[in-house]
């Protein structure tokens, strides 16, 4: 317990950093993921190509390499932002590819007749997607999106290697202070467990309320 009680503020700062990183990156991933899913099923060929390229590149790029590309590449083009913002961009964009595929799979479960009926009423593609298709698809993609965001929370540990305050990075100063590395990681693991269980509980509530009965 000494590791935790004597360094509670350090753990707390790292824990809050991970929570903030997870929340902001999740919001970005959800927004981009839904947008790219719309692109992938759009009737406009260039949008489909862009959405497919986005998913293919990001899903097949190691997250650490993407962090290097964002942290070191964007400043070369004159875009200088705090490391935390860069980390949100890297995590959010990477996870958006997986959110996109989850949402697209949900869109494919919606009967084709739903879209045809919407178009017969004079709705255009954005209206059909936003008002008819996505609300129905959302009910089927709650579990996979929850699993993807849990993975995002754990992937946020990479940000600590890029000068971003987060939970895993607390082991470095604690190790320098001579604390047991085993207990240091026990409390770090507990912190991640709390975050992932909170996400899981949230999506369990959403699934019970809006999910498709099985």
Automatic annotation (TrEMBL):
Gene3D superfamilies, per database record: MetI-like
Phylogenetic placement of the source organism: Bacteria, Bacillati, Actinomycetota, Actinomycetes, Kitasatosporales
UniProt entry keywords in alphabetical sequence: Amino-acid transport, Cell membrane, Membrane, Transmembrane, Transmembrane helix, Transport
Organism name: Streptomyces milbemycinicus
CDD domains the record matches: TM_PBP2
Membrane-related topology note: Multi-pass membrane protein
UniProt domain ABC transmembrane type-1: residue ranges: 15-203
Protein's name in the database: Amino acid ABC transporter permease
InterPro entries: AA_ABC_transptr_permease_3TM, ArtM/GltK/GlnP/TcyL/YhdX-like, MetI-like, MetI-like_sf
Localization annotation: Cell membrane
Transmembrane intervals: 21-41, 53-72, 79-99, 181-206
NCBIfam families in UniProt: HEQRo_perm_3TM
Family the UniProt entry places it in: Belongs to the binding-protein-dependent transport system permease family. HisMQ subfamily.
Domain of life: Bacteria
């Amino acid at each position: 317990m000494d590791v935790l009680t004597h360094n509670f503020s350090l753990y707390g700062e790292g824990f809050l950093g991970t929570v903030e990183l997870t929340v902001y990156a999740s919001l970005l991933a959800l927004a981009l993921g839904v947008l790219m899913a719309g692109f992938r099923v759009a009737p406009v060929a260039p949008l489909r190509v862009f959405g497919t390229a986005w998913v293919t590149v990001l899903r097949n790029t190691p997250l650490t390499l993407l962090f290097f590309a964002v942290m070191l590449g964007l400043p070369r083009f004159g875009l200088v932002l705090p490391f935390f913002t860069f980390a949100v961009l890297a995590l959010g964009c990477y996870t958006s590819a997986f959110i996109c595929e989850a949402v697209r799979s949900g869109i494919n479960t919606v009967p084709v007749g739903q879209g045809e009926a919407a178009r017969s009423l004079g709705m255009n593609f954005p209206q059909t997607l936003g008002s008819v298709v996505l609300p129905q698809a959302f009910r089927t993609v709650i579990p996979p999106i929850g699993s993807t965001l849990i993975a995002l929370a754990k992937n946020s540990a990479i940000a600590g290697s890029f000068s971003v305050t987060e939970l895993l990075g607390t082991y470095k100063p604690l190790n320098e202070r001579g604390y047991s590395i085993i207990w240091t990681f026990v409390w770090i693991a507990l912190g991640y467990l709390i975050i992932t269980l909170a996400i899981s509980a949230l999506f369990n509530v959403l699934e019970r309320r809006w999910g498709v009965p099985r």
